[in-house]
Amino acid sequence: MDFHLTPEEEAFRAEVRAFLDELLPPGTNAMDPKFVANWQRRVREKRWVGFSWPQEVGGGGGSIMQQVILKEEMAKRKAPPLGACFMGLAWVGPAIVEYGTGAQKQRFIPDILDGKYQWCTGYSEPGSGSDLASLQCRAVKDGDQYVVNGQKIWTSIAMWSKWMILLVRTGPPATGDNKHDGITCLLVEMETPGITVRPIRNMSGGAMFAEVFFDDVRVPVEHRLGEEGQGWKVTVSALAHERSSIAEVEGLLRKLDELVELAEKSVKNGRPALADDGVRRRIARFETRIEAMRMNGMRFLTQQLKGEPLGAETSINKLHRAELEVEMGDLALEIQGSAGHLEKEVDGGRWQRFALSWPEVVIGGGTPNIQRNIIAERVLGLPKD
Amino acid sequence: MNFGFTEEQDLLRQEVRKFLDAHAPMEAVRKLAETPEGFSRELWKQMGELGWLGLTIPEAHGGAGLGMVDLVVVLEETGRTLFPSPLLATTLAAAAIRDAGSEAQQARWLPRLADGSTIGTIALQEAGDRFDPAGVRLAGRRVGKDWLLAGDKVQVLDGAAADLLVVAFRTGAGDGEIALGVVERGAAGLTVEATPSIDGTRRVARVRCDGVRVAADALLGGAGTGAPALARLLDRAAAAAAAETIGAAEGALRLTVDYARERVQFGSPIGRFQGVKHPLAEMYVDVESFKSLLYYAAWCLDQGDPEAARFVSMAKAYAGEAFARIGIDGVQLHGGVGYTWEYDIQMYLKRSKWARAAFGDPDHHYDRVARLRTEAR
Q1: Is B293 in contact with A292 (CB distance < 8 Å)?
Q2: pLDDT (tens digit per residue) in B259-274
Q3: Of A27, A207, B150, B158, which is the most buried if we count CB atoms within 10 A?
Q4: SS3 (DSSP) at B224
Q5: Which residues of A touch B296 (CB under 8 A)?
Q6: Which residues, in sequence order, are bridge partners of residue A165?
Q7: Which residues partner with B170 through β-bridges?
Q8: What count of other Cβ atoms lies within 10 Å of the Cβ of residue B304?
Q9: Based on the domain organization, do B332 and B290 belong to the same domain?
Q10: Please, are residues A188 and A119 in contact by the beta-carbon 8 Å criterion?
C-alpha cells in the first residue's frame, strides 16, 4: 500500500495546477463566452480533451494516473468541462475509436474533440428501460441503407444534437437468452427525414431529454458502427469508459461544503441547524460515504493499473452516488424547514432544483435496484432473476 | 499509487487462514466459547511462535516490526470465524507501551507480549462510555514518586486472562491531565471480575482498582501528559476493532449468501428473489466501503498522516453501523433457522453488538468527523 505519487506524476499535477491558476484566477466568470472560447482552445492545445484517447486519433494518450490527476484537479477547482461535446467524449468517441472504420474516425473524432456539435444516445425505449437488451426499434437493410422504424425515449439533449448513436434490432425479435444478439449500432444524423423529436418536461419543470420517433428513416450502411449484430458489444465497451468516480467525489465534496454553509445559516429550534446533533451526524455520514467512494475508487484504480478489468464493482459507487444525491438534496430542503417547499425563497431555489433533479443521476445508467441485481448475481453468485 | 497488499501480506493472510481452518473451524470456536477461559492456551502459544502476537512490536524487542496494515490482515482473518483469543487486547497493550513507553519499559514488557508468555490488555473505558480524555475519571493519587489508583474500568477486553494491563487514569482535574500506567496481575488492590457477554467468543471484564500502585517506572511517559498517547491508542483500538469487523461481516455475508443459494422455497433458491438478493447486495456494498476506509486509515496510522483520525472515525462509524445491520438482516434472511442456537449466523449478530460500541459507537465517531470538519474550516 502506497499512496504517494511518482515524481513524474507530481510534476504533472503541478503542471495542471499552474494551468488552472493561470486560467481560473479568483473571480473568473466561467459563463462568459469569451472565457469559454479561450478555455476550450487552451485545453484543446494541451490535448486534455480526449486525454485518454490514443494520440494517433488526436487524443492526449494520458496514462490512467494522469487522467485521474487531471480530473481530480479540475473538479477541485470547479473548472469548466474539457471539451464541449459531452456524450461524444464520454462514450461515442471511445466507441468509434475502438470499433469505427477509418472513414468514421476521420469524419467524427476531430469534430468531437473540437466540440463542433452535440451527440445524443438512443438506447432506452418505452418498453426497454432497465432491460435494455429487449429493445425493439427495428432496422431493415435495403441495398446500401438501413430503414429504421420505432421509438426511443429518455434521449438526453436530443433536441440540440446533430448526431445520435442508436441501437436497433436487425436480427429476429428479442427472445430470452438470445436478446443480445441481433442488436446493431448505427450513427444517425438527426436531420434525416422521418425523425421527430418531442421534448419531455421533467419534475423540475425543465426539459433535458426527449422522445425520438423513427418513421422510415434511411441510414447509410457506412454509418453502421461495428458489425451487424454486434451492437451490444459496442455499447457495453463504450459504457465501460464511463468511469470518473474520482471527479464525482470532488463534485460531491463541493456540494457537501455548500450543504454545511446552508446548515450554518439556517435556523432550527432557535439555533443554527449545524449545531443540531442530528443534522451534524447526517452530514458526517454523507462525508463518510463520499470518502468511501473515493477510497473504493482508489482500490478499483489499483486493479486497473495492474491491468485487471473492472467488473460489477463499479456498481458499488453508483449505489453510493444514488443515495447521496437523493439524501443530500432532501436534507437541504429539510433544513430550510417550512420554506423548503418554496420555489425560490432560499438561495434562489438552487436546492429545490437540486432536490428535483436526482433522477437524472439515480435512474439514468441503471436504477439502484438494477445495480443491486448486478452485484448479487455477478459478485455474490446468486441465481439470476 | 498502489492501494493493494504486498505479496508478503498476501502470504501472511494465507498462512493465518490456513492455521485457523486447520485448528479453529466454527465447531472448535463454538467449543472454546463454552469453556471458562474462552480461548485455547495451546493455540495462543502457537500464534506466538508464528510471530503474529509480535507483529507490530519492534524487532529489537522480539517482534516482527511491521505496521498496522499488516495487523489488519491478521485481524480480518481472525474476525472471519470469530476466533476467540486475546490477540486484539495484547496487540493494543503492546502498541501503547511501544508508543508511550521508554526504551527500558519496552525492553521490560514487549518481548513477553511478543512471544505470548504475557497476555496484555488496555483498560481505558469507564461507565458512561466516553472515549475521550474527559471520560477518564479513575483517580490517581501521588505518593512519593508512585501513583495509587482508585476506580473502576469496564468492558476490559480479555481482562480476566490478562497478565498486564495498561490503565488510563487521571493525574489532576485538568482536561489533559491523564496518564497511562502498567499494572500487572496480582497487584495489591486489583480485582478483575469477568462480565459475561452475550457473545461467548468475546471476553470482557470489570477491573476494580482500590489503591493499586503504579510505580514510577511503570508510568508510560510523564504524569499528566498521557492525553495524546491515549488519543492515539483509542484510534489504534478503533481501527483494530474495525479491521476485525471486516472479517466478521464478510463471514456473516458469506454464510447468508450460501444459505440463500441452497434454501429452496416456491420452487426456487430464495437467493433468486430480489427481496433476498438486494439486502445481500447492500451488505456487500457496505463491507467493501468501510473496508476501503479502514485500509486507508491503517496506512495513515503507519505513516503518521494527520488524516488518520478522520479516517479511523469514518471507518469505525461505518463498520459499527453496517455490521449491526448485517447481523440483523443475516438472521432474518435465514428465516426460522436463523433463530436457532445450531446455526452460526446468530453468533455474528451477537458479535455485532460488541463491535458497534467498542472504542466508540457510530454516533461518537460521526460526531468526531463533524467536529474535525468544523475545525478544518
Answers
A1: yes
A2: 999 999 999 999 999 9
A3: B158
A4: coil
A5: 3, 295, 298
A6: A121, A187
A7: B139, B178
A8: 8
A9: yes
A10: no
Query: How many helices, marked H, and strands, marked E, lie in chain A?
Result: 13, 10
Which ipTM value was assigned to this complex? 0.96
Helix axes B362-376, A277-305, angle to 10 degrees: 90
| CB pair distance less than 8 Å for B366 and A284 | yes
Q: What is the distance between the alpha carbons of residues B137 and B143, in angstroms, rounded to a whole number? A: 18
Closest chain A C-alpha to B75 CA, distance in angstroms: 17
Specify whether the CB–CB gap between A76 and A250 falls below 8 A.
yes
Contacts of A384 in chain B (CB under 8 A): 272
Which residues of A are the active-site residues? 242
What digits encode the pLDDT tens for the residues B147-202? 999 999 999 999 999 999 999 999 999 888 999 999 999 999 999 999 999 999 99
Residue position matching grid coordinates 517506572: B217
pTM: 0.94
How many degrees, rounded to 5, is the angle at CA B170 between CA B168 and CA B176? 95
Distance CA B356, CA B248 (A): 12
What is the CATH T-level fold of the domain A118-229, as seen in this structure?
Butyryl-CoA Dehydrogenase, subunit A; domain 2 (2.40.110)
Query: How far away is chain B from the Cα of A302, in angstroms, using its nearest Cα?
Result: 6
Indicate the SS3 state at residue B193: strand
Least Cα distance to A163 among A233, A59, A87, A237 occurs for: A87
- Name the residue range of residue B213's domain: 121-224
Q: Are residues B323 and B355 in the same domain?
A: yes
Sign of CA dihedral B364, B366, B369, B371: negative
Indicate whether B78 belongs to any domain.
Answer: yes
| pLDDT tens per residue across span A334-372 | 999 999 999 999 999 999 999 999 998 888 778 999 999
